Amino acid sequence: MLIPWPWILLGSFALVALIQIFYYLRFFRRLAFFEPEVADNYQEKPVSVVICARDEAANLASNLPGVLLQTYHSTHEVVLVNDNSQDESRYLLEGLHKQFRQLNVVELLQEAQLIPGKKFPLSMGIKSAKYEVVLLTDADCVPASEFWIQKMQEPFSNGIEVVLGYGAYHKRKGFLNKLIRFETFHTALQYLSFALAGMPYMGVGRNLAYKKELFYRHKGFSSHNHISGGDDDLFVNMAANSHNTKVVVDPQAHTLSVPHTRFTSWYKQKTRHYSVAKFYKPVHRFLLTIYAISQFLFYPLFIGAMLLSDWRIALGFFSVRMIIQSVVYYKSMKKLNEKDLFAWYLFFDIAQFLFYIIFSTAILKRPKAVWK
Predict the structure, then answer these.
(1) CA distance linking residue 90 with residue 83, whole number of Å
(2) What's the DSSP call for residue 216?
(3) Residue 220 φ/ψ region, left for φ over 0, alpha for ψ in the -120 to 50 degree band, beta for the rest
(4) Which of 43, 182, 291, 304 is the most exposed place for a label (fewest CB within 10 A)?
(5) CA–CA separation, 338 vs 189, rounded Å?
(6) How many CB atoms lie within 10 A of CB 245?
(7) Taking CA 371 as the corner, what is the angle to CA 90 and CA 96, rounded to the nearest 5 degrees?
(8) Which residues contact 269 (CB under 8 A, 6 or more apart)?
């Protein structure tokens, strides 16, 4: 008996297309059609912005004023943890402190033993914070507007303990800039949509807020102190749930970073980030893995089904998926102020096949013991 390979190929493509459609309708549409709630009783809360820096004098000079000059009328502070810097950071911060009294500098002069990465300096920053709401960003980030603090602290009411924001990259000329920004958007589409669906699994330290009480309740980063990365996503994966987490996508609440200009540098950064994903909760690993596999197989199976099977059925499944995806991408990109990427989305969507091959080794690597 001959195996009906054309029909098996077509059935496999149909299954993969249906999986993709499921993810877009079950999860990703939530970001595309998200409308934030209007608070009945809005109240500004005291906020501590916490930033860790190591040899970041140039970035601090460029970006820290944008944090210090926020329009926020309630009590707030900026805690800057200067982690064993060997450059001019100390003198720069001393000068800024004279001008901005809300800047509190924590000087670390010794390396933490057996705690690799950023977790020890960040823990010291949170411990030094005066206020319950802690808003995190990085030294190479600048708020997209003067209302960043205001927008990121708004959801903290009625039991909310975690707020996920979007950490974008500056728009520059060149292919690599578009690639980095598309990958950043695609990652945000996943973690923001999953959070809106009641399944938060990660956040980014470039734009993330939570309560100190939550940090202490979960004993900080103690459960994954041995891992150099994960100070943002692993903590959110552990502490966030459907009841205590909200997202903020307002463009005024974004942060902006300067993207890498060399592919190798960006590759190292992404490899470091992906290497901690294997420590997520099993349900999150399962859902993200199924989605990644369906993405990886979608175009190869489509080509095979078109050539070797009934092309009309294959084209039908392909068209439905593409229509749904294009609507979700366009509306989500518009919400995250990345609308210029829509013209490139089909190219990058097809390129995901190569993307997964290039970064597949990251999940097998041990995270490096550096945070810069």
Answers:
(1) 10
(2) H
(3) left
(4) 43
(5) 12
(6) 22
(7) 20
(8) 260
Length, in residues, of the chain? 372
| Residue of 296, 343, 327, 341 whose CA lies nearest to 31 | 327
Distance between CA atoms of residues 202 and 240, nearest Å: 8
Contact by Cβ (8 Å): 74, 44: yes
Measured CA to CA in angstroms, residue 54 lies from 66, 95, 111, 226, 267 at distances of 19, 17, 12, 20, 21
The pTM score is 0.93
Q: What are phi and psi of 155, to 5 degrees?
A: -70, -10
Question: Where does 124-264 show beta strands of DSSP type E?
Answer: 133-138, 141-143, 162-164, 167-169, 208-211, 245-247, 255-257
For residue 272, the 8-state DSSP code is H
Residue range 246-278, pLDDT digits in tens: 999 999 999 999 998 888 888 887 777 777 888
Distance from C-alpha of 274 to C-alpha of 91, rounded to nearest angstrom: 35
Architecture in CATH of 47-278: Alpha-Beta Complex (3.90)
- What secondary structure does DSSP assign to 74-142, as a single string? S-EEEEEEEES--SSHHHHHHHHHHH-TTEEEEEE-SPPTT--TTHHHHHHHHHH--SSEEEEEETTEE
What ranges do the domains of the chain cover? Answer: 5-32+283-364, 47-278
State pLDDT tens for residues 122-143.
999 999 999 999 999 999 999 9
Backbone angles phi, psi at 113, to 5 degrees: -85, 130
Which among 137, 117, 122, 129 is positioned nearest to 208, based on CA atoms?
137
Report how far residue 60's alpha carbon sits from residue 68's, in angstroms, rounded to the nearest whole number: 11
Residue 272 corresponds to which amino acid?
R
The structure tokens listed for 253 are 């609440």
**Tokens, residue 189:** 């589409």
CB-based contacts of 297: which residues, under 8 Å, 6+ apart?
12, 16
| C-alpha triplet 138, 139, 145: angle, nearest 5° | 75
Q: Return the bridge partners of 255, or none.
A: 143, 167
CB contact at 8 A, 272 and 266: no
